[in-house]
Design a protein that fits this description.
Largest sheet: 8 strands, antiparallel, barrel
CATH architecture of one domain: 2-Layer Sandwich
Distance between the termini: 18 Å
Shape: globular
Strand order of the largest sheet: 2-4-3-11-8-10-9-5
């Protein structure tokens, strides 16, 4: 597992790190499959497995590869994501770090985003229990009330993860992964649940290590992974990349509709899918009708994409609100 401490991950490089096309292709292949073997990646990028291993180790060492993790459709187990956005006031850098560290220790935190814009932090939780949700919000309010200027709440209904086409200026239409289309209450065995939790922390964790941790045979771990895939809970594996270190800007975009229709929304979603700079689409109950995340090389490139959306979908888009993502701090992608 590749993991950074909160303090270390808050640091941004003074100058972008330059990597070659081969490293970009390796990162792209790891985005497609975070558990791909060195040999499998080597065949795609025309390198030996040893050369791939050395390049990956270097990308991990310098912090470009932040984490490998499993793509999990938690909705099929009856879970829901909810998010609170916080606008802070009267906080020093040290106090903000303290607030972030406190939030990261709350039950079932998936991630914390540091933002620049109307809000300063976006906190993503996982829950089945509305009481637990209420308790988490109250804990934050009670402890940091004097530092919170504003707070908003939303419930994530569906989200789609597109591939990191921006790395190689390529969008593969059939590579997106949908999560949340079906809310179910599928039960997991104890072994399946523990395997899922382990892979949520480290998507490349060797089967031998998982088996040792759980005191199970390798065959039982393989069967658990197979069952999770058959239940359409474990959808794949991917990699968290520190795109800011490569000189990219990461934006969250919140869109509200006017005169919406299914046909208009599908056309917008197709636009998202085909744009290599768009990596996520989210639908939620709360502050906006739809959200997307965009990674670009410059503010000018970002403004061009936003203007293009506004022009092409002027009959659908009422307004757009944007935030710059400064940093992403993660715990587990299945903190259960």
């Amino acid at each position: 597992m590749v993991k950074n401490s909160t303090e270390k991950s808050l640091e941004q490089p003074k100058e972008p790190i330059i990597i070659d096309k081969t490293d970009r292709k390796i990162l792209y292949e790891l985005d497609l499959n975070g558990r791909a073997t060195y040999s499998e990646i080597g065949k795609k990028v025309r390198l030996s497995k040893q050369a791939v291993k050395e390049r990956m180790s270097n990308l991990e060492k310098i912090g470009i590869i932040r984490q490998y993790f499993a793509l999990i459709d938690v909705h099929r187990m009856g879970y829901t994501f909810y998010r609170i956005d916080l606008k802070l006031q009267n906080v020093t850098e040290l106090k903000e770090k303290y607030i972030i560290n406190y939030i990261l220790k709350l039950p079932k935190v998936i991630s914390v985003l540091e933002l620049h814009g109307k809000y300063d932090l976006a906190v993503l939780f996982l829950t089945k229990d509305i009481i637990e949700t209420d308790n988490n919000i109250k804990n934050i309010k009670w402890k940091f009330n004097k530092y919170i200027k504003d707070m908003s709440f939303s419930v994530i209904t569906t989200h789609t993860r597109y591939k990191y086409g921006f790395l190689i200026d390529k969008k593969q239409e059939d590579k997106e992964i949908f999560m949340g289309r079906e809310l179910a209450d599928i039960k997991l065995s104890l072994v399946e649940n523990k395997v899922l939790s382990a892979l949520g922390w480290d998507g490349r964790m060797p089967l031998t290590k998982i088996a040792k941790q759980l005191e199970k045979s390798i065959s039982s771990i393989k069967n658990a992974i197979k069952n999770l895939k058959n239940k359409k809970i474990l959808l794949g594996f991917t990699t968290l990349i520190a795109s800011q270190m490569l000189g990219y800007l990461h934006y969250k975009v919140f869109i509200n509709f006017q005169n919406p229709s299914q046909e208009k929304e599908r056309k917008l979603e197709y636009y998202f899918r085909m744009n290599p700079n768009i990596i996520y689409m989210t639908k939620s109950l709360g502050r906006s009708d739809i959200e997307c995340e965009i990674i670009v090389r410059s503010i000018a490139e970002f403004k061009k994409i936003v203007r293009e959306m506004q022009y092409e979908f002027s009959d659908l888009i009422k307004d757009i609100d944007t935030y710059l993502v400064l940093n992403q701090l993660d715990t587990s992608y299945y903190p259960v």
